[in-house]
Inverse folding.
């Protein structure tokens, strides 16, 4: 009961933080947004800005993991804060490397948070998809492309997942061909309505499988 009440309080506190961020973003007051992010990281997660900046996504996830139990709500809070940090970086002339790092860390934390469906909302899914869209504007390492591909597949964004497969196949990744075959084979298990919703109808799935097998 205590843990559940704690989570509820934490989520409510963070909802208030997000509301303030949205308000100052609408005014393009990036200095105020930055202050809110920095203070929230300290108050809600116990992390100062320099520590967050120095750690990569996997290290942050590990920080929120104890005895193989991941604190999904803290991963989600960190993901949203990093997403907003990316927006600040993009709007204040920061180097592309800083914009990229924040988006990548945000995406990895979103994906970890979403392994618990309780922390998956339409609003946060939209943020995660925007992270992916923005990451795809960079020249990504194959490992990152596979991560985004997996996320799109899990969320039944089949057409977007296929687009990433095409990129991997063009790069002649040895494991991309087998991944493509498995992808299309798995999609054939879905009904037509789900495939249509994912913008990849059955005839295109069959065509893709045939192309991948040749």
């Amino acid at each position: 009961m205590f843990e559940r009440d704690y989570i509820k309080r934490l989520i409510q506190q963070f909802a208030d933080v997000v509301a303030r961020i949205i308000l100052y973003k609408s005014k393009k007051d990036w200095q105020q947004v930055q202050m809110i992010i920095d203070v929230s990281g300290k108050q809600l997660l116990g992390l100062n800005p320099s520590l967050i900046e120095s750690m990569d996504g996997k290290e942050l996830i590990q920080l929120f993991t104890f005895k193989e139990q991941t604190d999904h709500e803290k991963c989600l809070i960190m993901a949203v804060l990093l997403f907003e940090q990316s927006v600040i970086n993009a709007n204040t002339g920061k180097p592309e490397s800083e914009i990229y790092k924040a988006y990548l860390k945000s995406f990895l934390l979103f994906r970890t948070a979403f392994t618990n469906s309780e922390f998956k909302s339409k609003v946060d899914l939209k943020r995660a998809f925007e992270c992916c869209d923005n990451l795809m504007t960079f020249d990504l390492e194959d490992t990152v492309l596979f991560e985004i591909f997996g996320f799109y597949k899990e969320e039944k964004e089949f057409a977007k997942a296929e687009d990433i497969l095409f990129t991997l196949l063009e790069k002649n990744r040895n494991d991309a061909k087998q991944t493509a075959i498995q992808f299309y084979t798995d999609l054939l298990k879905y009904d037509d309505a789900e495939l249509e919703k994912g913008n990849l109808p059955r005839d295109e799935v069959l065509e893709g499988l045939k192309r991948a097998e040749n």
Remarks:
- The longest strand covers residues 65-66.
- The radius of gyration is 19 Å.
